Amino acid sequence: MNHDPLQWGRPSDEHYGTYNKSIASASPYPSMHTQQPIVTGTSVISMKYKDGVIIAADRLGSYGSLLRFSDVERLFPVGRNTVVGISGDISDMQHLENLLDEMQTENNYDNEYAEDEEALKPSYVFEYLANVMYNRRSKMNPLWNALIVAGLEDGKPFLKYVNLLGVTYSAPSLATGFGAHLALPLLRKIVDSESDVKKTSAEDAEKSIKEAMKVLFYRDARSSRNYSIAIVDSKKGLVLNKDAVVEDMVWGFAKDIKGYGTQNV
Amino acid sequence: MAGLSFDNYQRNQFLAERSKTVPQATSTGTTIVGVKYDGGVLIAADTRSTQGPIVANKNCAKLHRISPKIWCAGAGTAADTEEVTKLIGSNLELHSMYASREPRVVSALQMLKQHLFKYQGHIGAYLIVAGADPTGTHLFSIHAHGSTDVGFYQSLGSGSLAAMAVLEANWRPDLKKEEAMQLASDAIEAGIWNDLGSGSNVDLCIMETGKDAEYLRNYRTPNVREAKQRSYKFPRGTTAVLSERVLDICQVEEETVDIELEA
Amino acid sequence: MATTVASEYSNEVKNTPIEHQFNPYSDNGGTILGIAGEDFAVLAGDTRHTTDYSINSRYEPKVFDCGDNILISANGFAADGNALVKRFQNSLKWYHFDHNDKKLSMRSAARNIQHLLYGKRFFPYYVHTIIAGLDEEGKGAVYSFDPVGSYEREQCRAGGAAASLIMPFLDNQVNFKNQYEPDSHGTKRKHVKFLTVEEVVQLVRDAFSSATERHIHVGDGVEILIVTKEGVRKEFFELKRD
């Protein structure tokens, strides 16, 4: 027995000659699933209002600090009243997009009720994604994302979060990544509890989301000015606007800031 | 010997190697902000101080006076913000007496950053310095490594993102005093509600040219605790006295002395 | 980063890259509390859900009514907590299918949960689990579990972030620990008696409002589930949100 921990369980070379690893086609390393995000998308932000939900995400795909892709869509409509917003690794996001496509195909194929009783509801989509995420983390091979599922279910707004650990939660306003620190405090000023949701109009909600996207563009170094915004409304249905732009920014005072301390010209 | 003592450095290094835990300093996991406005500047802070997940003090004061009209809000290691502010405060007073001039905010800024830079970040003080002096009103922020920043609004601490979100969304040029007080307090409240390191009350300090600084301790108190459901008063004797021993640690002697007063 | 691992048992230096290991766990804060009365039991939990210094949700319930008068809560890493609760609820469903809708007793529920937890002994559910209900004689019962399934029936138990803050309070107020009859000079311990539901709810509210004051991961709201022979009742009270 070879007592080197890296060679445990192998016959000793002295007696049997060098171990032929190809016999068991064993890798010299333990299996390594874990990864790190490569091309990434930043925050997704969202909130409920009295007749539905709003969700937004910018269109930037960052490669570290490099602005790699400037037109990545990160909001995915599923069925008639669900939108999934995804942040984190873009290739894992595209894998999830594929899973969502397969789920829809599966549900629609040879199903005459697919548009009615058996239409996909936001909670179904969420439950599926939450299980995918938790199972992948339990295999120590996570999908490096945080997602928000937004939609309308039985006339009521639906909003829920899940991330690479399979951790899930629901609240009247939700955000991933940087948005959880910068955008949520603003959104919570409008909807902090379910009772606030009933008092909030679509116009006020849309205004808050746009304001929050502006603050994120000011302060998140991996954000872009172009973003997508989706609204799922009980009357208007699902509307996805793919070319929203951050507007009404204030930069005028910047010229009055000089140096970093004592300089005044 | 002047300056800080490093006598225990080697011992502590050794102790840290041997044990998993090292002594933790009380950190003011904090929200602090500063806002300039039409004719003045003000700073504000929350009042929670923490040791890990435990609230150490529910109503601590994070606004420090450097000179009567120059005040400073501190985040980071509580002891460091306190001490560095006191040290620079006294040096600034000596300097102002020597020069026969009112202390300036830029002097405080320069002395603080040079001191912090010298200690390479080991003094964990993150400060927002503001004040009124003969050259006008000023607002700066300083990081523990000695870098400084200028701006019309600043925020620092674990709740700085929540506070900055409010400042970015609602700040505009030419704010009035009352509007600035409202904005700064709202920014601190964003930290109080959204950041777990911040909580309890809002402290405020307003500085204007030609006026005394206005320190408004507990300007807002949105977190008063409601009454408890039950009374936890125990009947006398619930905690048993098992034995009693009284030690005389000094002898008291009484003596009456007649004093004759001479007329 | 190119780093190498040297082994004590061989002189050659292996070029094995040191992994930045993915951490499959996180701490989602919150605290829970179960108390058994004479003919009732309560299981309460705050509704705040956190990671690090952020509040994820102010209302994310973590105490569940599973039917058969059994309440459960698994506090710690929320994803594992939910997975465990779902597995237990599923197990209960199959128990009903297989045994003609027979009611699951508390002691059987407890033993079942032990197996669910110990089954993942080497990749544990990172949770402190408490179940509450009524035993076969109709008396209040609380069982608490460690992450790998060691369990015990108790009169009361606090779990989660502020467990160490609440537990001594419970020892003193539920089991009258460190309390003596006045004038007995420490010779007679205060007689232990069962508390009423109203008294227990008051204690629970005070325990949670106090934990909220001093623990940053506790707050927003407390949901109290109460089991009696009549069934399960829910009460909710606001807590401070800072």
TrEMBL record, chain A:
Its job: Non-catalytic component of the proteasome.
Q: Tell me the keywords, alphabetical order.
A: Cytoplasm, Nucleus, Proteasome
Q: What is this protein called?
A: Proteasome subunit beta
Predominant place of localization:
cytoplasm
Q: Which domain of life is it from?
A: Eukaryota
Q: What is the lineage of its organism?
A: Eukaryota, Fungi, Dikarya, Ascomycota, Saccharomycotina
Q: Which family does it belong to?
A: Belongs to the peptidase T1B family.
Q: Which organism is it from?
A: Lachancea thermotolerans (strain ATCC 56472 / CBS 6340 / NRRL Y-8284) (Yeast)
| Compartment(s) | Cytoplasm; Nucleus
UniProtKB/TrEMBL annotation, chain B:
Instruction: Please state the Enzyme Commission number of this protein.
Output: 3.4.25.1
Q: Give the UniProt entry's GO cellular component terms.
A: cytoplasm; nucleus; proteasome core complex, beta-subunit complex
Against SUPFAM superfamilies, the record matches this protein to: N-terminal nucleophile aminohydrolases (Ntn hydrolases) (SSF56235)
Question: Has UniProt tagged this entry with the keyword Protease?
Answer: yes
- The Proteasome beta subunit C-terminal domain is annotated at 222-257
Extract the InterPro entries matched here.
Ntn_hydrolases_N, Pept_T1A_subB, Proteasome_bsu_C, Proteasome_bsu_CS, Proteasome_sua/b, Proteasome_suB-type
Indicate where this protein resides in the cell. Answer: Nucleus
The UniProt entry annotates the active site at T30
Q: What are this entry's molecular-function GO terms? A: threonine-type endopeptidase activity
User: Which enzyme type, at the first EC level?
Assistant: hydrolase
| GO BP, sorted A to Z | proteasomal ubiquitin-independent protein catabolic process; proteasome-mediated ubiquitin-dependent protein catabolic process
Query: Catalyzes what?
Result: Cleavage of peptide bonds with very broad specificity
Q: Which UniProt keywords apply?
A: Cytoplasm, Hydrolase, Nucleus, Protease, Proteasome, Threonine protease
Predominant location: nucleus
The record describes its quaternary structure and partners as: The 26S proteasome consists of a 20S proteasome core and two 19S regulatory subunits. The 20S proteasome core is composed of 28 subunits that are arranged in four stacked rings, resulting in a barrel-shaped structure. The two end rings are each formed by seven alpha subunits, and the two central rings are each formed by seven beta subunits. The catalytic chamber with the active sites is on the inside of the barrel.
Task: Please give the name of this protein.
Answer: proteasome endopeptidase complex
Source organism (scientific name): Lachancea thermotolerans (strain ATCC 56472 / CBS 6340 / NRRL Y-8284) (Yeast)
What are the top taxonomic ranks of the organism? Eukaryota, Fungi, Dikarya, Ascomycota, Saccharomycotina
UniProtKB/TrEMBL annotation, chain C:
What are the recorded Gene Ontology BP terms? proteasomal ubiquitin-independent protein catabolic process; proteasome-mediated ubiquitin-dependent protein catabolic process
Q: Name one GO cellular component term.
A: nucleus
Q: What is its main location?
A: nucleus
At the top level of its lineage, which domain of life is listed?
Answer: Eukaryota
Stored InterPro entries:
Ntn_hydrolases_N (IPR029055), Proteasome_bsu_CS (IPR016050), Proteasome_sua/b (IPR001353), Proteasome_suB-type (IPR023333)
Q: Can you say where in the cell this protein is located?
A: Nucleus
- Please tell me whether the keyword Acyltransferase is annotated for this protein: no
Alphabetized, the UniProt keywords read: Cytoplasm, Nucleus, Proteasome
Look up keyword Nucleus and say if it applies.
yes
Cite the record's note on assembly.
Answer: The 26S proteasome consists of a 20S proteasome core and two 19S regulatory subunits. The 20S proteasome core is composed of 28 subunits that are arranged in four stacked rings, resulting in a barrel-shaped structure. The two end rings are each formed by seven alpha subunits, and the two central rings are each formed by seven beta subunits. The catalytic chamber with the active sites is on the inside of the barrel.
Q: Which PANTHER family match?
A: METALLOPROTEASE TLDD, PROTEASOME SUBUNIT BETA TYPE-1
Protein name (record): KLTH0E01826p
Which organism does this record belong to? Lachancea thermotolerans (strain ATCC 56472 / CBS 6340 / NRRL Y-8284) (Yeast)
